[in-house]
Specification:
Blueprint (H helix, E strand, L loop, with lengths): L3 E5 L4 H12 L3 E6 L2 H9 L5 E5 L5 H15 L4 E4 L15 H29 L2 E5 L13 H21 L5 E7 L16 H5 L4 H13 L8 E4 L6
Parallel strand pairs: 1-2, 1-4, 2-3, 4-5, 5-6, 6-7
């Protein structure tokens, strides 16, 4: 039976690129995200088996129901790629909205823990792997990333470290993946959206997907704790 990969944030950007890469590599792919139409677009480009599961990752009950659906459909979950993320243009102390702060943290941090916790029995059963797509701002402080984004992405390092420390006996492996600037629709959430010249110097979603695929394809005795991937050219 093919290995099963569950991706959050699969409707666009890095999550979508990972879905394409993994499907071409022979994985059965489960796509989750809040926009059913975007998931359909992703699914239509995949050559292998796929399941679309629209999902708001902030909803713990919905996450647990989605996990049960995956297991009912395929009998297993071998890997997770957690690519759902959020930021806001109003991100600094002098203009942020506290309710937006809490929502950014809920998506970037709380939802990651919720999905990991829901799928952990399956990862234990398969000596599975989880790739947590964080940010360069989760590896090194970057003031322009904002209060909520910086705090939530930095915390993912500890989430991954504690998971690796606590679950090594079960063969579970997790990677804190920290990409630098990536040319995706996520850039629209910046206070000043980069122009075409700036985007041309950035990583692409496919660059990140190749990195994720390297982690997914690594043998079960190899754990890649953290990876930082950056464009060569500065902003």
């Amino acid at each position: 039976m093919q290995r099963v990969l569950w991706i959050t944030g699969a409707g666009s950007g890095m999550g979508q690129a990972v879905a394409r890469s993994a499907s071409h590599a022979g994985w059965t792919v489960v796509l989750s995200g809040r926009r059913p139409g975007a998931l359909r677009d992703t699914a239509s480009s995949l050559p292998g088996p796929v399941l679309e599961l629209p999902l708001d990752v902030r909803d713990g009950d919905a996450v647990r129901a989605a996990r049960a659906r995956v297991v009912a459909e395929f009998g297993r979950i071998d890997a997770l790629v957690l690519a759902a993320g959020r930021n806001t243009p109003r991100r600094q102390w002098d203009d942020q909205d506290v309710e937006e702060f809490h929502d950014v943290v809920a998506v970037n941090l709380g939802a990651v823990v919720t999905v990991l916790d829901a799928a952990l029995p399956d990862l234990r059963a398969r000596s599975g792997v989880a790739v947590v797509i964080s940010s360069y701002a989760g590896w090194a402080f970057h003031p322009s990333a904002g209060v909520a984004y910086s705090a939530s992405k930095s915390a993912l390092s500890s989430v991954v470290r504690t998971l690796n420390a606590g679950e090594a006996a079960h063969g579970v492996r997790a990677t804190h993946l920290c990409p630098g600037d990536v040319d995706t629709d996520f850039l629209a959430q910046r206070p000043q959206v980069p122009d075409a010249t700036a985007r041309g110097r950035m990583l692409t979603a496919d660059d990140v997907a190749r990195t994720v695929q390297f982690v997914l394809d690594s043998p079960a005795h190899v754990r890649i704790d953290e990876l930082v991937v950056s464009p060569v050219s500065p902003r």
